[in-house]
Task: structure prediction
Amino acid sequence: IGLALAGRAGARMTDVFGAPTSRNTLLRLIASLPDPPVTAPRVVGVDEYAQCKGRIYGTVLVDVETRRPIDLLPDREADTLAAWLSERPGIEIVCRDRAPFFAEGATRGAPQATQIADRWHLWHNLGEAAEKCVYRHRGCLHPAPAPPDEPPEEPEPAASSPWPTGHRFAERTRAKHSTFHALLKAGHSKRSVARQLGMTLNTILRFSRAATPEELFTGQWQSRATKLDAYKPYLDLRWQEGCTNAWKLWEEIREQGYPDGYGNVRNYLSRTLRGKPQPVGPRPPSARAVTRWLLTHPDALVESHRIQLKAVLANCPELDVLAKHVRTFAHMVTDLQGDLLPEWIKSARAATGLPSLSRFAHHLERDLDAVVAGLSQPWNSGVVEAHVNRIKMLKRQMFGRAGCELLRKRVLLA
Result:
């Protein structure tokens, strides 16, 4: 009961069985149990688990052949893993992800073992790099505009008045200007007009010198220079592309160096761009959707997605090159053709316009032997990921209050 339900829940269950026991007694019984006998492992899987997410992490080790957990380490340091491996010289294969501390620990603790990088993590990292490449070329996701049948009409010249019509300040100033000059023509003096209209003498003088209301314009409606000016062409372009989310546009220009906050972008969109027409037609696919299509087997795509992907690749040579690299890597993963990886890395690093793919290939070179082994041998870390998920369940069952020793006992014995 203690191994299955731990303290409080186990104590409630013992009451049901008619053998009441306190939660502390159950925990003491669990702690007193000896570790299960474990044969010397040959293939070991290594991964991290969160003791306290974001703060404290440990290491779980699994016998991949028997699919049983072997041990839980209190941290994920390379020294701890190296010491554990060095006590078991019979280990021949270490399955791991590409975390540097696991790579270093396995190299120092089991130099005789072959390290295998997990294929799922490789495919996941490729997907992240592909999404960044697609987002970089998101302008190509819009279909090319069809040529117009007739030449477009010449736009009408803009109004000469610097004041927008219909604005309350502009209309009020025009009305005051008209009233002022009407009173002057009726024979009233400027001081008299000032008293009647409640205006200062300086304002009356300005009105008298202005033949038209537009001459009173002193800069209130001029576009003052702001930090957003340098990014307005980009915002206009993205608006025409169909992106109307102010927060997303603010994040995009912030990555380009825009120093101010979100409110200025929102105000510019609502006051300036909100009334501008957007291109008519179907909404273009998102970068994430195109990435999902690239990572999906062509035979598994529905017809509409296949047509959209074909149009996107035809519109962007860089994304077409990316698609070829993704398919080649997929064949290496599914057919275990790790010997083709060095040539793939060389080709990916030479691809122009795809910096994220080039960085991914560069990172593969740092762990080349393990990646080639992962793409050549059938071993993987799937069973380790299953036990990490089981550890999460046990932690939730104990409300996250289990220490490393109690959690280790339950993982190894339950």
Observations:
- Residues 183-218 form one domain.
- DSSP finds 20 helices and five strands in the chain.
- The CA atoms of residues 78 and 102 lie 6 Å apart.
